[in-house]
Amino acid sequence: MVDVSANADARPHVNALGSTAMSDLFQILRDGQPRTRSELASITGLARTTVAMRIDALTDLGLVGPVGEAASTGGRPSSLFAITASERFVVGVDIGASHIRVALADITGRIIEETNTVIAVAEGPRVVLDAVIATTRELIEHTGRRTGDLLAIGVGVPGPVEFSTGRPINPPIMPGWDRFDIAGWIRQEIDVPVLVDNDVNIMALGERERAWPDTDHLLFVKIATGIGAGVISGGFLQRGAQGTAGDIGHVYVSRGAEIACNCGNFGCLEALASGSAIARALTAAGIPATNSRDVVDLVKNGNVNAIQAVRQAGRDIGEVLTTCLSLMNPSVIVLGGSMAEAGEHLIAGVREVVYRRSMPLATESLHITLSQTGADAAVLGASMLAIHHSLSPANIEAMIAQSAGGALRAVK
Fold this sequence. Notes:
Blueprint: E1 2-3, E2 13-14, H1 22-29, H2 37-44, H3 48-60, E3 64-69, E4 79-83, E5 89-95, E6 99-106, E7 111-118, H4 125-142, E8 150-157, E9 161-162, E10 167-168, H5 182-187, E11 194-198, H6 199-211, E12 218-223, E13 227-233, E14 236-237, H7 269-273, H8 275-284, H9 292-300, H10 304-328, E15 332-336, H11 344-357, H12 360-363, E16 367-370, H13 377-390, H14 393-402, H15 405-409
Parallel strand pairs: 5-8, 8-11, 12-15, 15-16
Antiparallel strand pairs: 1-2, 3-4, 5-6, 6-7, 9-10, 12-13, 13-14
Pfam family, one: ROK
Protein name: ROK family protein
InterPro entries: ArsR-like_HTH, ATPase_NBD, ROK, ROK_cs, WH-like_DNA-bd_sf, WH_DNA-bd_sf
């Protein structure tokens, strides 16, 4: 059977216990590896003729198709089948503090087209979400797609989200958004499933999909105005009981014991090592800086004070990540967000503390690296959130049931 949890971001894990439904064949192919009918029959234990009929049905749905031929063993080469791009598509939305990015992606995760719009999240949910809806419609029309082929919409927002409801919960930089029904508002105009998560979680999904597809244990750390982490463990995004897993920005760091945080506590990592915190410290030292962008520019221009401040921020972040490493044992730690543009000056501080303070076995195969997806991480991750939901076994079975009934049901 194919082991796929109810997690909307789950990736399929295949074993050889046998497969009984047409959607199971599809889940096997979701790992991206093309296979012949014979290979699928061997994995599932089904007769080759049954596999052939089900592959034909999935091909008719536009979900699977031939992608080449296997190496010949003497006879006619066998066709290889894989998930292919079709008319069906998803939309990924990245809502930032001062922008929205909207992308159309096919079911393989390839971005078809995207657009970036300057708009402040502080303008409120109705204004921002109406802009998302309008932009989505414009992209669909511009690419010649049909709204009826849209499977789902994934949305990332810059604040805590209760994933089960898709509602932001007390988001500090999103005035007016607390417990707002984002999914419901969008569905009033575009009636498809809408999945909402915080931006760091979807960035973790995007980074894994693009740069680390074979990694099941990854920690994505966003360092910008705030600090947070997206946790992938065992191949699944870990949100925790209330969706606050990865909120490392409010972990206590002794060096900041006297520094107040926006959350009301003292000594939070975010109050010490975020881009805005570094900017405040530099300004207090007589070097004007108002945000992460200013800090990065100072670093790139060789300002020694800025370089030293960023290096120390890396050490502070490394102190917290050392604990994370002991708890979760990730194989990859990715640093992203606007402060990641400070490059080696930031990552050197992180590595310095993590490798000095962690147990040797935990760091033996550990990669600490900068994000390879950059600004694309969130919109790609939002697209993948929608894809994983749309291509779940239950939803594939629903597509099959809704298709040209008799011929497809006969091969189930």
